Amino acid sequence: MEARIAKESAESEDVKLLMGIPGVNYYTALLLTSEIGDFSRFSKANKLVSWLGLAPRVHQSGDTIYNGRITKEGSPRVRWALVQAARSAVQWDDHYRTKYQSIKVSKNQRTTRRWESNSGNSKRNRSGNVSYDQPKGGISI
Question: For residue 89, what are the contacts with CB-CB under 8 A and spacing of at least 6?
Fold first, then answer.
């Protein structure tokens, strides 16, 4: 069965083109072509990204623009397949592994800075009058 799927997928020009993307195998390419259909109906790549639900939500107020999480409007199967393709590309392709590592490091640095700047101001971290250096008699108040 698998050989038949591979043979039939090799006959499709769209599948061949999609398989040129690192991480995309014939299953992923077939899923994309069956879910998306005719790629030419999208005049720009960002329209396809929006249709797939991969574009971030945009909140605007005056001159301030905030990009939120992805909209998840499209097919969950396609999003899952694209995530798997990205994971495969990171695992097997040096270029994408390096790119992923640099994004991961910069994200961790931002998170650490944010945590350090908020750690002293959080209500959770205020101890009030309770001393954590407990004398032999217990908690001093």
Answer: 21, 22, 23, 96
Domain count along the chain:
1
> 74-97, pLDDT tens digit by residue?
889 999 999 999 999 999 989 989
Question: pTM value?
Answer: 0.63
27 occurs within a structural domain: yes
Mean pLDDT in runs of 10 for the chain (141 residues)?
76 87 90 89 91 86 84 87 91 90 81 68 52 50 46
Q: Look at residues 53, 46, 50, 10 and name the one whose alpha carbon lies nearest to residue 30.
A: 10
* Token output for 136: 């032999």
Q: Is 111 inside a domain boundary?
A: no
Q: Rounded to whole angstroms, how far apart are CA atoms 9 and 3?
A: 10
- The burial class, CB within 10 Å (0-12 / 13-18 / 19+), for 30 is buried
